[in-house]
Write a structure and sequence with these properties.
The structure holds 2 protein chains of 2 kinds. By secondary structure, chain A is α+β, with helices and mostly antiparallel strands. Chain A is built from 2 helices and 5 strands, in the order βαβαβββ. The longest helix of chain A is centred in the middle third of the chain and has 9 residues, at 29-37. Chain B is an alpha+beta fold. Chain B has a single domain (2-148), classed as Aldehyde Oxidoreductase, domain 3, CATH 3.90.1170. Helix content of chain B is 40%, strand content 36%. In chain B, strands 3, 4, 6, 8 and 9 form a 5-stranded antiparallel β-sheet that branches. In chain B, strands 1-5-7-2 form a 4-stranded mixed β-sheet, sandwiched between helices. Classes of the chains: A alpha+beta, B alpha+beta.
Chain lengths: 78, 153
Amino acid sequence: MKLLFFGRLRDCAGVGEREIDLPPGITTVASLREWIGRDLPQLLEPTVRIAIDDRLAIGGETIGDAREIAFLPTVSGG
Amino acid sequence: MIGVSDKPIDPPSLLATFIASVAGAGGIASFTGVVRESNEGGEVERLWLDFHGQLTVSALNEIGGDTRTRFALIDIAIVHRVGTVLPGEPIVFVAAGAEHRRAAFDAVDYAMDRVKTEAPFWKRETRDGTDHWIEARPSDHDHRARWEDEFGR
């Protein structure tokens, strides 16, 4: 599965995309955020939003067959 | 004509295309935003705009659709730059065509206020050799809120 990082989170992660294998037990967006957040604590900030395959998530959603999970910091606007 | 461009945009030619395509309009208004040459007291070297392929385009389409409905427009155009944009270069172009001029003026103003506060763009400004991630200004949110006051949303 692919993780996508945008804006300043891209700089924090050092890349815009990262391929990962989900460990057993990581089944929801919230648990994924917590797991990745151990290495990237910026992802745990409450203003960071998450999108699953182009749809904004609330947090409790299961990851299921998702291809991409995107981490979105507060937007700059246009 | 709603979308993003990773190449320089040419507002005069976008406007000419728009005018030619809006049949029945009595008024067409347009806005071009340009990258400032200085910000926060420093010299801007460049701006880099990050975006999400699907979410950003969906947001622009939603803003365009809402604006069109709200002001009973005949058509609307929103074209936004992504990637590296240099000072003095156009970064956004918005045009609205309506039966009467007031709706066209208001529509452009409203669409820009929403683009400035809601569209998923992340701007990294290089100023005096240092990178800064930019957030929407409080005044951008104040401008957006004007419309909520007037129209209750």
